[in-house]
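TICKET: design request
STATUS: open
ATTACHED STRUCTURE:
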């Protein structure tokens, strides 16, 4: 069984190969309905060929409905019972993915490290209620950082940082590509996070994003929370 939520050319390829190999293709998109997303998580209805679900998860973002649906249909294919599927979905926690560290100001750490992932992250962030947006960002040098920096141009303040990873991008390159009116660079992730906390107000939002390595280093400030 091939389980997918993709569309377009990718779905056409999967459909063709599954036909050639006599494999079952499960497209979860038509199975999903009534999706609700908030800072508390995502909930939705899922109607599979073998069962009907009303699922709630702490994972944030509309896109997580498709991710969860894929996991559910795959679990069904392995014979996992409905009650265990519902329980598993409700307990799932993904550190570093739209992960709320604190409130007042709210700090969200996200490990999106490519344009597609960042687009989904920003789709969630734009719907939140805040006064100013502070973005602490760092990237790996082999990623499409020019496009991602451009996507962050709406932020009120951009703080460029560099992780300890050997592939980390130099902060000057982030600043060079940035069109944000207010931008500054720090040579460590935690320095950038501390500065954002220092200059932001209670109603502001701090988003730490751009790299799994950046997310990992930033989370260490709130390690007791984990």
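STATUS: resolved
RESOLUTION: sequence designed for all positions
ATTACHED SEQUENCE:
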């Amino acid at each position: 069984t091939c389980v997918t939520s993709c569309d377009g050319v990718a779905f056409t390829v999967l459909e063709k190969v599954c036909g050639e190999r006599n494999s079952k293709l499960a497209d979860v998109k038509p199975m999903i309905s009534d999706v609700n997303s908030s800072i508390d998580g995502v909930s939705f209805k899922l109607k599979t060929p073998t069962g009907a679900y009303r699922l709630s998860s702490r994972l944030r973002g509309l896109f997580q409905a498709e991710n969860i649906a894929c996991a559910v249909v795959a679990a069904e294919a392995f014979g996992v019972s409905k009650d265990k599927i519902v329980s598993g979905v409700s307990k799932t926690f993904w550190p570093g993915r739209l992960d709320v560290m604190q409130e007042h100001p709210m700090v969200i750490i996200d490990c999106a490290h490519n344009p597609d992932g960042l687009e989904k992250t920003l789709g969630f962030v734009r719907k939140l209620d805040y006064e100013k947006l502070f973005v602490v960002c760092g990237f790996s040098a082999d990623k499409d950082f020019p496009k991602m920096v451009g996507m962050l141009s709406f932020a009120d303040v951009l703080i460029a940082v560099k992780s300890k990873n050997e592939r980390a991008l130099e902060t000057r390159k982030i600043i060079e590509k940035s069109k944000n009116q207010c931008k500054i660079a720090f040579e460590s992730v935690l320095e950038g996070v501390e500065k954002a906390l220092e200059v932001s107000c209670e109603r502001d939002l701090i988003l730490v994003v751009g790299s799994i390595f950046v997310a990992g280093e930033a989370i260490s400030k709130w390690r007791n929370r984990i």
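CLOSING REMARK: The chain is about 35% helix and 25% strand. The longest helix spans residues 8-21.
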